Amino acid sequence: MNNYLKKVKFKLHLDPKIEKRGNSKLFIPEDKKAVLLIYADFELEWAWRYSKHNENSLHAAKKHGLTERENVPVVIDICKEYQIPITWATVGHLFLKSCSKDKSIAHENLKRPGYFENQFWSYKEGDWFDADPCTDFRTNPEWYCPDLIQLILNSDVKHEIGCHTFSHIDCTDKLCPPELFDSEISECKKLSKALGIDMKSFVHPAHTIGNLDGLIKHGFTSYRTDYDNILGYPNKYKNKLWEFKSTWEFVLFKEWSIKYHIYRYCEILRRAIKSNTVCVLWFHPSMDRRFFETILTKIFEFINENKDNIWVPHVSEYVRFLNKNGL
Ligand SMILES: [Zn+2]
Ligand SMILES: [Zn+2]
C-alpha cells in the first residue's frame, strides 16, 4: 500500500482497526481509559545479515548495527525525561561481552536452522553463525552490547528486558523444530539469568509466529503479533500465553511531514482513549535518529499530558494486571 493510501485509510478510521469486546473494562484499569505498550526490537546487526532487501546484506547489517548503537542511549535518555518504559525484545547474543570459535565454528553448542528462504531472509550457504566475528564488544560493537543492556538496567525508568531469540531465527513451526527453539531460548535464559533477569515477554523475529508451546515451557507469559493494525484486546493461548496485537510501528516516511507523523501517533492514542482499548507500538532502534529527536519526544509529551487516561506499563507489568483480574 502506498503512503498516500495509508493516509486515506487512517483518515477514514479504517486503520488501525478498532476491536470491540464486551468485557473491555477488565483489560483497562478502572481509573484509566487506555493502555499503551511500547516495544523496541533490539538486535544490532543480527536482524539484517541475511536480508533479501539489500544486495550486500552484511554491509547494510553493519550500518544498522552501528546506527542502533548510537540511537539506544538517545532513546533511553528520552524515556528518562518523560518517565516512559519500553520493553526491549533483545537478541540473546547482545548479552555477551565476547565469544570465540570453539574448534572451527561459532557457538558450537547451539543447534542451527536448516537452509531456508522466507519473506525477509535468504540463508542458502555456509554456517548460520558465519558472520559472527567471534571477538568482543569493543572490537565489534555491532554484534554485542552488554554495555547498552547495563544502561537500560541502570535507568531509573522501569524498562523490561524481553527475548527476541539468541540469533534472530525464523521461529515458525515449519522452519524451527522445537529442539532448535529450545537451544536458542535456553542460551538466552542462561545469559539473562546471570544478570538477574527473568525474561517473561517474547517477540518472534519478524513476527515469524510459532513454537508457542515452547514459549509456555520456557516460562514466557506473552508474545506480540502483527497480522493487522489493531486497537483492541489481547487474546490468551491455552490460557497461559497472552498475545498482544500490534497497532502500529514507529516509522519515518519521507513522503510525510514531521508534523503529520506527530499528529498521526497522537491521534492513534486519542482513538485508544476514546475506544478504551490497548495500543501496542513497536520500533527498530536502528531507524533514522530524527524520528526519536523530533517525533518520539512529541508523542511522549502527549502521553504525559494524558497520563490520567493512558497507563503505560512495561509488558510483563501489564500481564500481572491481566492475571490479577482473573483473565
Ligand atoms: Zn558469537
Ligand atoms: Zn527483529
CATH homologous superfamily annotation: Glycoside hydrolase/deacetylase
Order of helices and strands: HEEHEEEEEHEHEHEEEEEHEHEH
Rounded mean pLDDT is 95
Number of strands: 16
CATH architecture: Alpha-Beta Barrel
**Poorly predicted regions:** none
First-last Cα distance: 36 Å
Apparent shape: globular
Estimated structural class: alpha/beta
Q: What is the percent of helical residues?
A: 25-40%
What's the CATH C level?
Answer: Alpha Beta
Q: Mind summarizing the main beta sheet?
A: 6 strands, parallel
> Which topology does CATH recognise?
TIM Barrel
The number of domains = 1
The percentage of residues in β strands lies in 15-25%
Task: Please count the helical segments.
Answer: 8
The ligands found in this model are: zinc ion
What value does the Rg take, in angstroms? 19 Å
